[in-house]
Amino acid sequence: MDPFASALEQAAAVRRGEVGVRELVDAYLTRIERCNARLGAYWLTTPELARAQAEHPGEGPLAGASVSVKDLAAMAGYPLTFGSRAYRENVAATDAFVVTRMKAAGTPILGRTTTPEFGSRPVTEFGLHGTARNPWDLERTAGGSSGGAAAALAAGLCAWSHGSDGGGSVRIPASCCGVVGLKPSRGRISPGPLVGEGWAGLSTQGVLTRTVADAAAALDVLAGHLPGDPYWAEPEGSYLAALERSPRGLRIGFQTGAPGQVHPELRQLVREVATRLEELGHHLEEDGPRTEPFRAPFQVVVTAGTATYPVSDRSLLDPLNAWMMERAERLTAADYVRAVNAIRDHSRRVVAFWDDHDLLLTPTLTQPPVPIGHFADPEPERASQRSLDWLAFTYPYNCTGQPAISLPVGTSAEGLPLGVQLVGPPRGEALLLAVAARLEEALPWRHRRPPGFA
C-alpha cells in the first residue's frame, strides 16, 4: 500500500481486508531502515511492540494505522531520554496517557522520534540523538521540537505522528515539512500520569498528520483527561464527525505582521488564503490581537520548566539548556508567579478578540525552513531571542491555551513547504477543524511529496 496514504485510508483498507496490519508495519519498518539514516527522524524503532500490536489491532477508525511517538512521552519498558545525554540510561516504568490511548485504539507504535534536548528548541539539533533533517531539503531543518515526528511523516515513514507543543513544537515542524500540525486546547489531552502540567499549562500533546481528517481522528483517539488533571476541556463529541459541517459567514481576522521581519512569500500566502476563505463565504478583515507582551513572561516559564529536570552534570547539556538552568537559579518563586499571572492577565485581552471574531489566520512561522545550524549561536540568549522572532505567531496561543492548526497550503520559490496557522476560539477544535477541512478541499496538498522519498 502507498506509504503516503492517509491514516484513515490505511485503516479502512485493513477493515476491508485489502491489507494486513502486520504487512503495513513491516513495510514501514523496511522504509525506516532504508531512509532514516538520511533524515534522523527516528532514534529507536520498536518492531517487537508494533508487531505484537498488529496481532490485535482493534476496530476504531485508526486501527492498523502505524504511529510514531516523540521522545518526550513515556513508553513503559523503553528508553525515555528527553533527547538528553544526561538521561541516556533512563527507562520509563509506565506509559504516558497518550501512549495508553494509542494502544487502546489499535495503532501500532513504530518507534521513538528525535527531539532536541527537553524539547526546548524550535529545531531538532544539539541533542543526544542528533539532527532531524527536512525531507524536502536535507540541509534545512525539520523544525522542532517535534522535528523527528514531522520528518518521519513527511518522508512516508509512518501513517501519523505524535508530538507535543509548548511554543509551537507541533506547528513549527508541520510547517517546515509540509504536513498538518494540530495543537489542541489546554486540557483537551491529559499530560499525565507522570507530568502534572507542562510549563504552567503552556505545553500540550498534539498530532501531525497528512490530512485534516486524520488530525480529527487522531484527536478523537487522544482526547481525554485523568482524575486530578489541573485543566480539562470537556468532550465536544467526535471531531471526525465535526468535519461534515461547512460553516459559512464566519468573521475571520488575519495578520501578516510581527516583531522582526516576516518573509514576503508568507505575507502573500496569508493574503491568498484570506481571499480563498472569502470565496468560501466568510468575512475577512486584516486585524488581530496584540501578543508581544507574552514574550518576556513566556521566557520565564520556559526557563523555569527546563530547570525542573534534575541534572548533576550540566556539561552534558545543550548550551542553551545549561544557560537556562543557570538563569533559573537567579529567579525567585515570586518571579515565576508574576510571569504566570502576566500570561493569564494578557490572555484575557487576547482572547477578547474572539468575542467578535470566529478565527484568526496568520503565517505559522515568520520565515521559511531555516538551514541546519541556523540557531547555533555561541550566545544562548541571542539564540533564544532569534528563535522567538521565528515563532512570533505560534507561542502566544500556548499562552492563551487556544487550539491552533498549521496547514501546508504553500510552497516557496525554492520548493520548500510554507504553512499558515488558523487559531480557533477557546475549546473550539470542532469549528477549527471544519474550516481547515474546507480549506484543504480548496487548496489541496496531498499530491506533494518530497522528491527524494516519493
Written overview of the protein:
The protein has a single domain (7-442), classed as Amidase signature (AS) enzymes. It has helices at residues 7-15, 21-39, 47-54, 97-105, 147-154, 171-177, 212-222, 239-242, 264-279, 295-306, 319-328, 333-351, 380-390, 396-400, 429-442, and strands spanning 42-45, 67-70, 109-113, 133-134, 137-141, 160-165, 180-183, 204-209, 251-254, 283-286, 359-363, 404-411, 417-423. The protein is α/β, with parallel strands linked by helices and 454 residues long. The longest helix is centred in the N-terminal third of the chain and has 19 residues, at 21-39. It is 36% helix and 14% strand.
Order of adjacent strands in the largest pleated sheet:
1-3-2-6-8-7-12-13-11-9-10
Largest sheet: 11 strands, mixed
Query: What is the CATH class designation?
Result: Alpha Beta
Could you say which structural class the secondary elements and strand pairing correspond to?
A: alpha/beta
